[in-house]
From TrEMBL:
InterPro entries: QCT, Quino_amine_DH_bsu, WD40/YVTN_repeat-like_dom_sf. The keyword Transferase applies. It comes from Sphingomonas piscis. It comes from the Bacteria. Keywords: Signal, Transferase. It holds the Pfam family Glu_cyclase_2. One of its GO terms (molecular function) is glutaminyl-peptide cyclotransferase activity. PANTHER family: GLUTAMINYL-PEPTIDE CYCLOTRANSFERASE. Residues 1-23 form the signal peptide. This is Glutaminyl-peptide cyclotransferase.
Amino acid sequence: MRRSTKSLQVVAALLLGTVVATCGPRAATGNSAAEASSAPAIAEPILPTLCTFTVRKSYPHDPKAFTEGLLFDGGQLYESTGMVGQSGVRRVRLSDGKVLQQAVVPPPYFGEGLTKLGNEMFSVTWKEGKGFRWNARTFRKTGEFSYTGEGWGLTNDGKQIFMSDGTPVVRVLDPKSMKVVRTFTVNAGGQPVANINELEWRRGALMANVWTTNQVVIFDPASGAVRSVMDLSELRRQAGGSDVEAVPNGIAYDEAGDRLFVTGKYWTKLFEIVPSGC
């Protein structure tokens, strides 16, 4: 089937951003001719396709929440928020957005991603290299862990935790020790995708918001290859308005009900969507 013009535009925009990211001051240097001559032949990369969706329902969302993490587990919606002095983790009633339970992430920490594994929640902070463990029932802090670099997004596949740090690299962590087991690079058409932010696990694949854009990438957890791209521009217009900070951020999959939820920073709504071609 021939791709639509919109599909090509979305994918091209994503790839343009990744090419620019790899050409910055942190790009690797070296003898490219020598490297090319000695490099093994690889298969031609496959470009991602466009993942479309329909909106099934919308729910109220706290317009003061600088959303960093979102998850749905056991019939409950959980969210983590950022900004120093406003950071925390919370349990939210889906129907009206009311905060039912919460714990504060105190200054100087800037809260970031959140994931839940069993009766334990894990959250990370932006630049402080500090993460927290929480009892998912009482919301009491039960421990801390450290990591290098920045903390952005978190999710899990039921066994391992995946963590993003704003680069194209995703870390796979052992939930007991929170040590890195392996890493992989998110790539679209063979190019690394920068600014990988909030993460979600759905049907054997990872989903991620790409910071400052309206795009969600769906990629393979082994190779990091992006399979498809979802454009949330219209939802941002409906719920984020003209606020430049109100970017899409927050993906939650309800495995039991096979429902997918998305929202954004300072959005007035949380959307239940039905994806197609993802």
